[in-house]
C-alpha cells in the first residue's frame, strides 16, 4: 500500500500506526498507550514537523464547534476544525475572527501551532486570537490552560509545534462580523515599497504584494478593506500602479476561478480575507512553500537582497508574496515583540532544487535576522534558530516540563530544541 502523504505530496509519512479519534477519551487512550506520538491536522505542513515512525494521530474527525460565548466574545472549537467552516459558523451568528490566512482549508489549531498568519499592519498572527487550550498531556490526562490561569507560560504554549501535547480544544477571541471589499492593483514598482513602506502597507486592512522577481515590481497588490459607514472608492492609480479591471489569480496566466471575489464587490469577511475559495483546490495544488520573516525596519533592504537572487530563483519559483504582521508576545512567533514582513515563496514541486536554492536565500536574508515559518521548507541550522527565536530556551524548558520523556517529539522537534 502507498504511504500517506502531506497536502503538497513531498512528505511521505512514516507512521507505523494511524489513528483518527472521534472523542477526547479516544485521544487520551492513544496517548497513554504510545511511546511516541505526533498530532496531524490538515497536512498543510511542507516539512517533517508532523512526521513520526510511531503513532500518528489525525484530528480531522474532531471537527465540532463546541460553544460560542456571545457575552465573552469567544468561540471554542475542537482540534480538527478548519477556518473555512468556522468562518461560516461565526458569520451566520454575527461574529468574525480578527484575520484569516490565504487558505481557508487549513486547521485552526495547526495554523496557531506554527504561527501562521494573515496580513495587516495592525493584525497579529492567527495564534494571537487564542485565549485557552485544552491539551491531552503525556500522561493521558486532560488539562485546560488560559491566559488568565497560566499568565507566565501561556504565551509559550500557543505556538507549540505539537511538542506539549495533543490540542483537543481551543478558545479564540471573536468580534462583530464585518464585510470586506477586495481591490487589486497591477505593476507597483519596488521603489514605492522601499520609499513609502508605511503608506503602501497601510493602504488597507490587509495588503499582499505579489512578484516573481523577474522585474523590479509587484505585478499585483491585493487590498482587503473593511467596509465602514463611509463610502469608499479607490483611485484608478495608486503609487503608479493601476487598478485591475478583472479578477486575477496571483500567478500570471492562471484563471481566477478559485480566487475570492475582487473588483471591490463587498462580501463577508470569511469570503474576502482569504485569497482562495474553500470549495476549490487551494493555490496551484502541487507546490512547495517557504517563508521568512524579517523585522519591518529591514524590509526594504531585504527586498533588494532577494532581488539580487532573481536569476537563482527564476527556474524554481512560481510566485512570492510579501505581507506585514503585527508584533505579538508569543514565544515561538517570528513576530515576537517586533512587527515583521513575511517573504513568502511558492516553489515548483521539485524539493531537490528548492533545497539547493534555500541556503543562498537564507544567507541573503541572514543579516536581517530572518526567521523561518515553522511549517514550511527551510534549512536554517538549529543554532541559528536559537539566535533569532530568543525564547527558544524558555520553550525548551517548558517542553521538558510538560513532556519529560519526549513522547510528543520527533526528529524535527528534537533538532529545534537540542541546539546549544
Automatic annotation (TrEMBL):
InterPro entries: ALO_C, FAD-bd_PCMH, FAD-bd_PCMH-like_sf, FAD-bd_PCMH_sub1, FAD-bd_PCMH_sub2, FAD_lactone_oxidase-like, Oxid_FAD_bind_N, Vanillyl_alc_oxidase_C-sub2. The keyword 4Fe-4S does not apply. Keywords: Oxidoreductase. Pfam families: ALO, FAD_binding_4. GO terms for molecular function: D-arabinono-1,4-lactone oxidase activity; FAD binding; L-gulono-1,4-lactone dehydrogenase activity. GO terms for cellular component: membrane. Residues 11-177 form the FAD-binding PCMH-type domain. Gene3D superfamilies: 3.30.465.10, 3.30.70.2520, 3.30.70.2530, Uridine Diphospho-n-acetylenolpyruvylglucosamine Reductase, domain 2, Vanillyl-alcohol Oxidase, Chain A, domain 4. This is Xylitol oxidase. It comes from Deinococcus yavapaiensis KR-236.
Amino acid at each position: 500500500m502507498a504511504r500517506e502523504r502531506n497536502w503538497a505530496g513531498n512528505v511521505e509519512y512514516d507512521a507505523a500506526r494511524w489513528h483518527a479519534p472521534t472523542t477526547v477519551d479516544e485521544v487520551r487512550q492513544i496517548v497513554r498507550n504510545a511511546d511516541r506520538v505526533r498530532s496531524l491536522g490538515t497536512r498543510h505542513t511542507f516539512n517533517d514537523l508532523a512526521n513520526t515512525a510511531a503513532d500518528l494521530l489525525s484530528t480531522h474527525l474532531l471537527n465540532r464547534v463546541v460553544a460560542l460565548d456571545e457575552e465573552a466574545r469567544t468561540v471554542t472549537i475542537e482540534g480538527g476544525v478548519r477556518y473555512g467552516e468556522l468562518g461560516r459558523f461565526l458569520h451566520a451568528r454575527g461574529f468574525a475572527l480578527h484575520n484569516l490566512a490565504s487558505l481557508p482549508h487549513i486547521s485552526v489549531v495547526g495554523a496557531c501551532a506554527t504561527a501562521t498568519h494573515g496580513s495587516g499592519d495592525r493584525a497579529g498572527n492567527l495564534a494571537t486570537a487564542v485565549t485557552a487550550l485544552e491539551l491531552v498531556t503525556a500522561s493521558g490526562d486532560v488539562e485546560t490552560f488560559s491566559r488568565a490561569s497560566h499568565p507566565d507560560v501561556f504565551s509559550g504554549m500557543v505556538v507549540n509545534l505539537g511538542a506539549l501535547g495533543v490540542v483537543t480544544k481551543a478558545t479564540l477571541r471573536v468580534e462583530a462580523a464585518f464585510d470586506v471589499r477586495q481591490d487589486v492593483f497591477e505593476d507597483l514598482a519596488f521603489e514605492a515599497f522601499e520609499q513609502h513602506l508605511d503608506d503602501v502597507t497601510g493602504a488597507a486592512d490587509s495588503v499582499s504584494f505579489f512578484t516573481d522577481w523577474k522585474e523590479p515590481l509587484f505585478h499585483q497588490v491585493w487590498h482587503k478593506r473593511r467596509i465602514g459607514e463611509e463610502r469608499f472608492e479607490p483611485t484608478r492609480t495608486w503609487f503608479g500602479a493601476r487598478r485591475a479591471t478583472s479578477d486575477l489569480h496571483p500567478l500570471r496566466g492562471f484563471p481566477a476561478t478559485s480566487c475570492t471575489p475582487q473588483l471591490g464587490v463587498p462580501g463577508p469577511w470569511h469570503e474576502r480575507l482569504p485569497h482562495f475559495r474553500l470549495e476549490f483546490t487551494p493555490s496551484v495544488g502541487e507546490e512547495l512553500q517557504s517563508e521568512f520573516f524579517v523585522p519591518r525596519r529591514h524590509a526594504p533592504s531585504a527586498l533588494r537582497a532577494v532581488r539580487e537572487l532573481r536569476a537563482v530563483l527564476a527556474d524554481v519559483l512560481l510566485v512570492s508574496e510579501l505581507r506585514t504582521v503585527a508584533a505579538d508576545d508569543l514565544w515561538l512567533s517570528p513576530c515576537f515583540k517586533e512587527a515583521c514582513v513575511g517573504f513568502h515563496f511558492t516553489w515548483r514541486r521539485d524539493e531537490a532544487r528548492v533545497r539547493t536554492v534555500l541556503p543562498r536565500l537564507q544567507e541573503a536574508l541572514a543579516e536581517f535576522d530572518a526567521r523561518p515559518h515553522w511549517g514550511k521548507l527551510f534549512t536554517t541550522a538549529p543554532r541559528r534558530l536559537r539566535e533569532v527565536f530568543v525564547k527558544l530556551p524558555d520553550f525548551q524548558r517548558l517542553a521538558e516540563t510538560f513532556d519529560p520523556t519526549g513522547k510528543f517529539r520527533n526528529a524535527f522537534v528534537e533538532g529545534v530544541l537540542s541546539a546549544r
